Amino acid sequence: MTGPTSAYAAHAVALCAGAAVWLAMVRDTGVRRARVLFVDVSTESDPPWSRWRPHLLQTLERVRDTARGRREWWCVPVAVLLAALGGSVLPLVAGAVAVPLVGRWLRRRAGAREAERAATAVAALCGAVVGELRAGREPGQALLAALRERPAGADPSATPTSGGRLGDAEAAVLAAARFGGDVPAALRQAAEAPGLEGLSGMAACWRVAVDGGAGLATGLERLEAALREDRRRREELRAHLAGAWSTVVVLALLPCAGLGLGAALGAEPLRVLLHTPGGLACLAVGVFLEAAGLYWACRIVRGAEAA
Predict the structure, then answer these.
(1) Exposed, middle or buried, 116 (CB in 10 Å: 0-12/13-18/19+)?
(2) Rounded to the nearest 5°, which phi and psi values hold at 168?
(3) Using one digit for the tens of pLDDT, what is the confidence trace for 98-109?
(4) Gap between the Cα atoms of 241 and 261, Å rounded
(5) Which residues cross the membrane (predicted)?
(6) What is the four-CA torsion angle of 136, 142, 148, 154, rounded to 10 degrees?
(7) pTM value?
(8) Of 48, 82, 110, 214, whose CB has the highest number of CB atoms within 10 Å?
(9) What is the pLDDT of residue 154?
């Protein structure tokens, strides 16, 4: 099968694969759960195949959860599809190499989101401690009460410490505040975690208030204002750089668009790239230039973010 027929077949396979991914990843979970609940109430007039629908839906639900938890493994079916269309093992090798790289990138993004949430929790903690101090509590009692408050977005069924503001570092701070330990030292140790750097300022305010008799509530109030202002500046910078990131993504997808256009015209670009010496050379040079361009563009945008 060659020519336009093979191109149509490739397009049909890609369309089916995309539809399967969409059905597995995008569809509303509430609809599936409602179907699972209602199909269990079956009658004798139901067809035999309807009894297997709940099990099939539950299996799809587990597959969807696994796919979301290990999204880097989606590189494997994409590589298998390209290998089948191009008749070469090179896409399989590329897919095997891409799995750890994509996993590292996804973990980095997840870590950045966790750091953002932790920074927001530190600012909220400062505000909660200020409120408790204004109510007349002692500093240690105010910190305990603020840490025991459930942060926004926490699981209602979770205990106060399991869904706390400071994550794994909360236990040491709670122990220091409850038993009269060195609270500033515990706060500085907790500030070493990503996103919790603001706790070092809280430790400094605490130390100054204890040693010099300064007002702790006033210092924490100023610290909270500074942390929220810093977060606002980061959000504004991220909004300004959204256009640059969009340009990087569009430029990265242009080679894929060129391959699709070539397949639509019947040029069979995968066969040329994977089975001819000139195509292999062009593929190697293109992959190198694509990686170098993406690295340079990301470095420019991240440099602007860091500045």
Answers:
(1) middle
(2) -70, -25
(3) 888 888 888 888
(4) 30
(5) 6-25, 74-98, 241-266, 278-298
(6) 90
(7) 0.64
(8) 82
(9) 45
